[in-house]
């Protein structure tokens, strides 16, 4: 079946006076109807920039899409004018950001903000828009939604504000929801509740969900498939169970080895040495080679493509077969 969303060899550059930053340099992934794809990476790996490109938000200096394609139900999004993009952004593909407080307007009630967004985009009357806002507040489990319609953002907790952002994103019934670190600003219990809510809504709506995160724990709980990003590239794609049981890239191996495990002593944790590269100065060859425990001479000069490892699995490591076989 045709994927809902397909990102293929997408590259994004930011051109500043100090030089060119290749924030995204050839990422590819697909999202099927009803699927949850986690885009996993450290900060600065390009995972948010890739999502902004899908939302059509990289369309003016200093950011440029320099290569690749983004198709939604077969429609090439990179060819759309801003006017055409407005039919897609928010309606067919919606996004929730990390920081709900700065995304909400402090001087309007949350109900009015959801209703107004709905009224404008769905061309609805005021009464219908108000009903839709209350319905959506209820769907994200805001207690006494109708009574809280007129409350302002500061009258809600961080977790409730994030629920309101999710309500707003889903009010137009999008086919794809992109959630960029939606729980990072929240405490751990609330994080779990928000992830549970996203999973519930995803099941009920049958939408595709792209979850951008640096948290492997979140990935294990909710994702069907994972795209692991490093230095603006996708370095591994796999089903979530395969990824954990048999990683095919040394970076993924390192991430998994660094998860604290109850059954191991603290000193057995193996964090990955070093830091991710500055995107203005990505190392030649394999961008992971300065940190890679498996690196050899070839890795410093020869950049690996995303090799096909199996059906629906890829690894950007020349030695993926060796990595895999070490996890047999
Ligand atoms: Fe490591 Fe070389 Fe594989 Fe890159 S290509 S991940 S440096 S072994
Ligand atoms: Mg980010």
Automatic annotation (TrEMBL):
Q: Which UniProt keywords apply?
A: ATP-binding, Cell membrane, Membrane, Nucleotide-binding, Transport
Where would you say this protein principally sits, based on its record?
Answer: membrane
Q: State the Pfam families in the record.
A: ABC_tran, oligo_HPY
Keyword RNA-binding in annotation: no
Domain ABC transporter span(s) in chain numbering: 5-256
Under the heading CDD domains, the entry gives: ABC_NikE_OppD_transporters
Q: Where in the cell is it found?
A: Cell membrane
Give the matching SUPFAM superfamilies: P-loop containing nucleoside triphosphate hydrolases (SSF52540)
Alphabetical list of InterPro entries matching this protein: AAA+_ATPase (IPR003593), ABC_Ni/Peptide_Import (IPR050388), ABC_transporter-like_ATP-bd (IPR003439), ABC_transporter-like_CS (IPR017871), Oligopep_ABC_C (IPR013563), P-loop_NTPase (IPR027417)
Q: Name one GO molecular function term.
A: ATP binding
Q: Domain of life here?
A: Bacteria
Protein's UniProt keywords contain Nucleotide-binding:
yes
User: How does this protein sit in the membrane?
Assistant: Peripheral membrane protein
Q: Quote the NCBIfam families the UniProt record gives.
A: oligo_HPY
Q: Which PANTHER family match?
A: DIPEPTIDE TRANSPORT ATP-BINDING PROTEIN DPPD, OLIGOPEPTIDE TRANSPORT ATP-BINDING PROTEIN APPD
Family to which this protein belongs: Belongs to the ABC transporter superfamily.
Q: What is this protein called?
A: ABC transporter ATP-binding protein
Q: What is the lineage of its organism?
A: Bacteria, Bacillati, Actinomycetota, Actinomycetes, Propionibacteriales
């Amino acid at each position: 079946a045709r994927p809902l969303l397909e990102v293929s060899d997408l590259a994004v550059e930011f051109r500043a006076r100090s030089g060119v930053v290749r924030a995204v340099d050839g990422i590819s992934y697909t999202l099927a109807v009803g699927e949850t794809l986690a885009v996993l990476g450290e900060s600065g790996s390009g995972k948010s920039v890739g999502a902004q490109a899908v939302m059509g938000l990289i369309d003016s200096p200093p950011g440029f899409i320099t290569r690749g394609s983004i198709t939604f139900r077969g429609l090439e999004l990179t060819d759309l004018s801003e006017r055409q993009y407005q039919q897609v952004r928010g309606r067919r593909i919606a996004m929730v950001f990390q920081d709900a407080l700065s995304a909400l307007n402090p001087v309007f009630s949350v109900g009015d903000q959801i209703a107004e967004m709905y009224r404008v985009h769905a061309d609805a009357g005021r009464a219908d828009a108000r009903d839709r806002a209350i319905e959506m507040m209820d769907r994200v489990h805001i207690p006494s939604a109708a009574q809280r319609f007129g409350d302002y953002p500061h009258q809600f907790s961080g977790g409730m504000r994030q629920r309101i952002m999710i309500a707003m994103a889903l009010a137009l019934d999008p086919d794809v929801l992109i959630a960029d670190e939606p729980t990072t600003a929240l405490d751990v219990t609330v994080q779990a509740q928000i992830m549970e809510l996203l999973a519930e809504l995803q099941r009920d709506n049958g939408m595709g969900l792209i979850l951008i995160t640096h948290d492997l724990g979140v990935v294990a709980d909710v994702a069907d498939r994972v795209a692991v990003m490093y230095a603006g590239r996708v370095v591994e794609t796999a089903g979530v169970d395969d990824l954990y049981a048999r990683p095919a890239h040394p970076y993924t191996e390192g991430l998994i080895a660094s998860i604290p495990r109850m059954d191991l002593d603290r000193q057995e944790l193996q964090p990955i040495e070093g830091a991710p590269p500055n995107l203005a100065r990505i190392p030649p060859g394999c961008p992971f080679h300065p940190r890679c425990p498996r690196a050899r001479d070839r890795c410093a000069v020869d950049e690996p493509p995303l090799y096909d490892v199996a059906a629906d699995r890829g690894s950007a490591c020349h030695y993926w077969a060796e990595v895999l076989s070490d996890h047999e």
